[in-house]
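Tokens as discussed.
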């Protein structure tokens, strides 16, 4: 057994004291190697958690003798001559990151994502782990791991330990509901006035819908660990049998806007219990925490989950179809907000998560596996429904993945997913994959086509902003300076302006929070005065129709739909047309 102990001396410093104790066999012939994870599942980029580690020391636990060690990499340590010893490793960890993937220490709570803070012993990742928390009397612990003694948690192996966040606090609120004989726990840290009957009813409804979809649950219980903050925040991360959700401001949790976010992220993260935690890509079976785990199927792990996260809220009658369309319209806006989808496929974007997938990056380079992935999932779901008269759908694909891979612990490949889609469709779906997964085909026409099968349509409206809709550039005001922040490729602005230009005048009139009004006289061209690299220039902007940020896409029901369309709507959303 590998034993861990977490304590702290002064919460004002944010430093946790971490100890790791293990016995080394006398016959051991290789040095002890300790690895701190470089990334965490759910965010596929190197985060180099070793930046938070201070003062590593390695002792003989019986004699308290310091043992020499050396660093092999930025997050790997080696100690020789440890055979036959009981070794204790001590170090400090800086817990001052309040988000769903972070850790936090203050006088009110200890919040820990173990994957950030706990080293593992190379070659012994499959051993049982015990985690002891040295916390004040009266504090409660919220965690997906079982407590085998007060403040003592046990994990089957390091992977389970790393994937089990915890909150320890004297002020945790807790409620529980049951679905299919399984307990679901909702934990809340933070000051919020909550409508518990409403929350429990809604959570139970979407949980039931998910269990109905898959037929069974991969784990014996589930824990929603909520951090409700006093300031604006939004983040969620999935784990083995839990999720951490960080939202704020806490006093607005039950308002329409923020409660909608709570439902959406909670439904999304619960779906991950099947899709990525259980149904896992072959490249991550098992996780290698020391380096990048490249995989090309994040459009499945995150794109399909993003689709279902909002869709199932409507299907379970937690949200109305109109409320679902509002969320779908947000995904559409985010997808069509730049031209990156013309330049990178979903499969390659999955790989590039490890490069810059969570940053804005250079203009028009990439596409979101979350947003385009969700729209590609919508196209696939409605296509499968159309082909089978709604006898089969994306539900069947996910159930097959769960049966063949989730329940067996075998990792799936791209070829496995394509095979299952083809089998559910009853035909070769290679054109779908070539266009929308491995290619950069536009989504507008296929989206509108499949939406019509369920009595809906994709509407297009022009952008009312002249700078964006006519000339193809966006601006941001910084310290009363109007600066160009984005330019649509091949638009009129692309031939005259550049990002970071400061626009100071239009046709000789000073720009002072009035840019749009200066463009509203309908002229065919304008003289624009800009500072570029501190040099004053005058350029000409000439209107060219059709190449700009101009279009806005929304999904709405058809004003008139035939019987087949209305029936399709009902079978898709579980609402009467």
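Sequence:
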């Amino acid at each position: 057994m590998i034993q861990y102990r977490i304590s702290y001396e002064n919460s004002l410093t944010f430093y946790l004291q971490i100890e790791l104790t293990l016995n080394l066999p006398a016959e051991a012939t290789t040095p002890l190697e300790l690895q701190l994870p470089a990334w965490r599942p759910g965010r596929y980029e190197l985060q180099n958690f070793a930046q938070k580690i201070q003062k590593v020391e390695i002792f003989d636990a019986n004699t308290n003798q310091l043992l020499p060690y050396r660093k092999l990499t930025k997050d790997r340590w080696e100690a020789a001559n440890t055979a036959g010893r009981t070794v204790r490793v001590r170090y400090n960890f800086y817990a001052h990151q309040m988000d769903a993937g972070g850790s936090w220490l203050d006088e009110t709570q200890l919040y820990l994502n173990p994957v950030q803070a706990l080293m593992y012993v190379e070659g012994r990742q499959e051993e049982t782990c015990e985690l002891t928390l040295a916390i004040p009397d009266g504090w409660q612990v919220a965690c997906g791991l079982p407590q085998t003694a007060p403040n003592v948690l046990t994990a089957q192996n390091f992977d389970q330990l790393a994937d089990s966040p915890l909150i320890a606090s004297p002020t945790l609120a807790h409620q529980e509901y049951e679905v299919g004989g399984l307990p679901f726990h909702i934990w809340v840290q933070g000051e919020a006035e909550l409508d518990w009957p409403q929350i429990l009813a809604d959570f139970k409804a979407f949980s039931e819908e998910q269990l109905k979809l898959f037929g069974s649950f991969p784990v014996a219980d589930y824990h929603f660990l909520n951090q409700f903050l006093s300031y604006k925040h939004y983040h969620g991360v999935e784990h083995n049998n839990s999720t951490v959700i960080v939202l704020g401001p806490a006093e607005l949790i039950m308002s329409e806007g923020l409660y909608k976010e709570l439902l959406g992220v909670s439904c999304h993260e619960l779906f991950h219990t099947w899709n990525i935690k259980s149904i896992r890509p072959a490249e991550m079976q098992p996780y290698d925490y020391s380096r990048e785990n490249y995989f090309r199927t994040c459009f499945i792990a995150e794109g399909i989950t993003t689709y279902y996260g909002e869709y199932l809220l409507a299907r379970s009658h937690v949200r109305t179809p109109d409320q679902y369309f509002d969320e779908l319209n947000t995904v559409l806006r985010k997808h069509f907000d730049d031209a990156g989808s013309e330049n990178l496929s979903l499969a390659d974007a999955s790989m590039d998560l490890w490069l810059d997938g969570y940053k804005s990056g250079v203009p028009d380079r990439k596409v979101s596996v979350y947003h385009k992935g969700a729209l590609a999932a919508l196209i696939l779901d409605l296509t499968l429904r159309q082909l089978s008269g709604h006898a089969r759908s994306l539900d069947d694909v996910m159930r097959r993945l769960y049966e063949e891979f989730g329940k067996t612990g075998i990792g799936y490949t791209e070829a496995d997913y394509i095979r299952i889609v083809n089998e559910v469709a009853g035909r070769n779906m290679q054109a779908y994959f070539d266009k929308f997964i491995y290619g950069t085909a536009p989504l507008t026409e296929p989206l509108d086509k499949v939406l019509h099968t369920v009595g809906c349509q994709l509407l297009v409206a022009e952008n009312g902003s002249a700078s964006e809709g006519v000339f193809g550039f966006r601006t941001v005001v910084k310290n009363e300076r109007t600066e160009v922040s984005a330019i649509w490729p091949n638009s009129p602005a692309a031939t005259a302006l550049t990002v970071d230009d400061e626009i100071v005048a239009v046709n000789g009139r000073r720009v002072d929070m009035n840019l749009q009004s200066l463009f509203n006289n309908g002229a065919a061209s304008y003289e624009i005065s800009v500072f570029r690299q501190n040099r004053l220039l005058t350029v000409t902007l000439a209107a060219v129709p059709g190449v700009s940020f101009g279009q806005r896409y929304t999904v709405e029901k058809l004003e008139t739909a035939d019987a087949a369309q209305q029936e399709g709507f009902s079978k898709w959303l579980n609402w009467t047309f």
